[in-house]
Each structure stands twice: as structure tokens, then as C-alpha cells.
């Protein structure tokens, strides 16, 4: 697993079959299908300008490719989602309905404060 994760994060992720050997750049995620997201809180190590901890978002794509979708202050979902916990401060987010369809990263995706899960399953 990538050295960016704590031992506890690695243990929690591996318990659920997530073994991240490489994080692919968010730029390369544009237009790609994402089956689900991993949301990880950075705790109080580094705070956003708003005073809240940053959250890291990782997209799980086809063939278990893992995309680094960046650090964010918050995320918004305009569609129903299912949220499960992988352990302390780690959450797994999936489409609530039509899971086979998945989500697609916007062609104009950039990592900024707000991460949006939009209508039609577009991630931006």
C-alpha cells in the first residue's frame, strides 16, 4: 500500500479488500467510470481555511484502479447515496440505486474545496 496511509488506515482498508498499490492522478480520472468512493478524514492534522479537517476522496474504478480525487473541505450529493464505514474516519460511498451504472468523473474535474456528486452520476 501507498505510504500516504497510516498503519491503522491500511488495516481498516485491507479488512474490506481494499489494497491500494498505486493512486492514479485525478487528472487521469477524467471521463473514467467510478464504482464507489472512499472518504477519509485527515483528522485535525491539517485544517481547511474553514477550520474543519480535510477529507481525502479516492475513486474506485474498473479493474480496482484507485484514483486520487484530492483533498476537500466537504462533499455534496445531489443524488441518493449509500454510506458504509470501513473503520474509524473511513467511509465507503456507493450509488444507492442503479449501482451497475456507477458514476463518471467529469471531463473538467479539478480538485477544489467542494466535491460534488451530481445528477446523472457525474463527479465534479
Structure commentary:
It is a single chain. With 124 residues, this protein is mostly beta strands. Helices cover 7% and strands 41% of the residues. It contains one helix and ten strands; from the N terminus they run αββββββββββ. The protein has one helix at residues 7-15, and strands spanning 23-24, 33-41, 55-61, 66-72, 74-77, 81-87, 90-95, 103-105, 114-117, 122-123. The strands form two sheets. Strands 1, 2, 3, 4, 6, 7, 8 and 10 form an eight-stranded mixed beta sheet that branches. Strands 5-9 form a two-stranded parallel sheet. β6 (81-87) and β7 (90-95) form a beta hairpin. The longest helix has 9 residues, at 7-15. The protein is globular. The two termini are 26 Å apart. The mean pLDDT is 86.
Unreliable stretches (pLDDT < 50, length at least 5) are: none
Head-to-tail CA distance between termini: 26 Å
Q: What share of residues is helical?
A: under 10%
Order of helices and strands: HEEEEEEEEEE
Rg over CA atoms, rounded to whole Å, is: 14 Å
Percent strand equals 35-45%
Mean pLDDT figure: 86
Structural category is: mainly beta
> How many individual helices?
1
Q: Report the principal-axis shape.
A: globular
Q: What about the largest sheet?
A: 8 strands, mixed
How many distinct beta strands?
10
Q: Please tell me the total number of domains.
A: 1
Which oligomeric state applies? Answer: single chain
Q: What is this structure's SSE topology?
A:
Elements: H1 7-15, E1 23-24, E2 33-41, E3 55-61, E4 66-72, E5 74-77, E6 81-87, E7 90-95, E8 103-105, E9 114-117, E10 122-123
Parallel strand pairs: 1-4, 5-9, 8-10
Antiparallel strand pairs: 2-3, 2-7, 2-8, 3-4, 6-7
